[in-house]
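#struct-queue
[09:14] JT: dropping the first one here, sequence first, then the structure tokens:
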Amino acid sequence: MDEFMEHTIQDLYSAEQQALEAMPQLAERVQNDKLRQAFTTHMRETEQQLQRLEQIAQQLGIEPEGEVCLAMQGLIEEAQDLIDQLEDGELADAAIIGAAQKMEHYEIASYGTARTLAQQAGQQQVAELLEQTLNEEKATDEKLTVIATSGVNQQAAQK
């Protein structure tokens, strides 16, 4: 169980680093102001999430680095391939929202798993830190849904 927890934390750390690196590239293509602001806000949150993961790793006596998150790597590559095929505008914004939500859903699943592992191992403080990040990821996903359904998707469908 300890090895699985170590792998999970390292995978999350890699995923967050990759996401943080990719977000400016995605945000740069965005036309919608609310979507651009959501990316800016989430970049700041991701920096804090990385710090939380470093704190968790220290508490568990593990190194935060050590894994490459192949899932996030694939999601980012897929997003980049998709938006490279699209012209800037509403359709690209809708595609970017979809790509970002795929990334968020991966993180939500991973943080949920890590939180449950920590709870079952009696690591309550670690579980609380993971729950905090899990809640942030869920809020970001919901914010992206609101942006998509409050105009971006409808505008994209009209193009």
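[09:21] JT: and here's the second one, same format:
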Amino acid sequence: MLWLRSAAFNLTFYAMSVVAVIAATPALFLPRRFTHGAIRWWSHTTLWLLRVLAGTNYEVRGKLPEGAVLVASKHQSMWDTIAMTAILDRPAMVLKRELLWIPFYGWYAQKARMIAIDRGAASQAIRRLIAQGKAALAEKRPIVIFPEGTRSAPGSKLDYKPGVAALYRQLDIDCVPAAVNSGLFWGRRGFLRHPGTIIVEFLEPIPAGLDRKSFMETLETRVEAAAARLLAESGRAGALVEKHPVTTG
């Protein structure tokens, strides 16, 4: 039954996505709010399909970030990006520049003014990151970044990249840490979509003004502690930590 429900969701999800991106193409030539609306509709529809076909619900904990703020979230699954565009207002997602080369996906990301970063460009990439961040804040949009730079398996940890500290320090804004347990239900590379409740938890904000070291230590401590707590709450902590030992690189 798990396999069948997962197959039903995956097939419906990809079919819906193809139809949606083609049908919404006119939004690319209209004011940007239409593109944000199309992305939000696709995200909500995906979450609805996940609940109906796979039995996977979600719960939002903590105060929802609003306006010009930096959101730094644990990243375990594709679900995280879908959920953030559904529950936040016009978020400026920090993503790899290579994603802009993908037909349709890249076009919508550029039109929505997502923040693209070239991780191979070093200091130049940071300058562009800050410039795009300032533009997003001027529009009172939350900036969403995944500090580890890529998805990590539940129970594991990767090094936190410098981009999050650059945004926090250079933009002089509060940072809202966030934790998820999404990898338990929608794996990084797996086919199965497990029933249950995905939790995204927004934590106590880190006020602007901390030095880089203090900020990074505070961010990592809060996010990793909350992620471990959500994992333990699921009742699957021991098996997953054994399967995916904690790493630091």
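[09:30] RK: nice, looked through the second one.
[09:31] RK: The first strand starts at residue 56 and ends at 61.
[09:31] JT: good to know. The radius of gyration is 18 Å.
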